Amino acid sequence: MKNVKQRCGLQKDSVEENRIFSKSLLTDSLLIKQPEKGYRYSIDAVILAWHVNVLGHKRVVDLGTGCGIIALILARRFPHIHIMGIEIQKSLAYLAQCNVLKNQMTKQVQIICDDLKNLYTKDIGGPVDMVVANPPFGKAGCTRLGSDKSKCGATHEIFATLSDVIECSARLLNISGTLMMIYPAQRLVELFHTLRKAGLEPKRLRTVHPHVFADANRVIVRAVKHGRQELVIEPPLYVHQANGAYTTEVEAMFRL
Question: Is the terminal CB of the chain with fewer CB neighbours within 10 Å at N or C?
Fold first, then answer.
């Protein structure tokens, strides 16, 4: 399989020369490079990565990896796994590869610049045990898009819809393989319908609230390929305390 620079046709020094990226520490042990403006990873990615438990899984795919944030966190947490980060945008795929190299994780993390709609098991060396996804959640045409194409592509269904992400997950997963997703709470009914249509049974659900008195704005869902019909609803996650600071649980998510 070609490496990301060959597949994307990017120049070796195009990132640093343009000075478009800044460095930010996620934790004391992980260095993440991301654009100063435009697309930047959000706390959604950190929350999702925290809730992933690979157990006996060894092969993991991160759909829409962006700058590689989720793949890198998982690689640091679980040294035994191999992760393939899929990203359609060339600039973000190159950035993700830069982050993999910077954190010396080339043996664990592979970045593939490709369209998930065209991705099959033959393209990644066979079925995988787990797929993680923090997919675009804004429907194209329903909201006014900004001028930054990279950011719009990461947050709105321009390159892939919810159905595209879930259908790809179902194609790539082993029987009894697991999909972990974070998604807007207001689209939960659509999410469950799309999962079941693709043969992925929702097994665990956790709602995410900005604070204790707020409605949920995100949901974390664990689905199993051809799993039995049984759903566990976990205690809610509150992101902020009354004073605006992160809750103890969320603070822990930033420490590896």
Answer: N
Taking alpha carbons only, the member of 125, 82, 119 closest to residue 100 is: 82
What is the three-class DSSP state of 146?
coil
Using DSSP, state whether 17 is helix, strand or coil.
helix
Angle at 242 between CA 240 and CA 244, to 5 degrees: 50
d(C-alpha 157, C-alpha 5), whole Å = 25
pTM for this prediction: 0.85
The pLDDT of 158-170, averaged and rounded, is 93
pLDDT digits (tens, 9 = 90+) for 98-120: 999 999 999 999 999 999 999 99
For the chain, domains (ranges, CATH) are 4-253 (3.40.50.150)
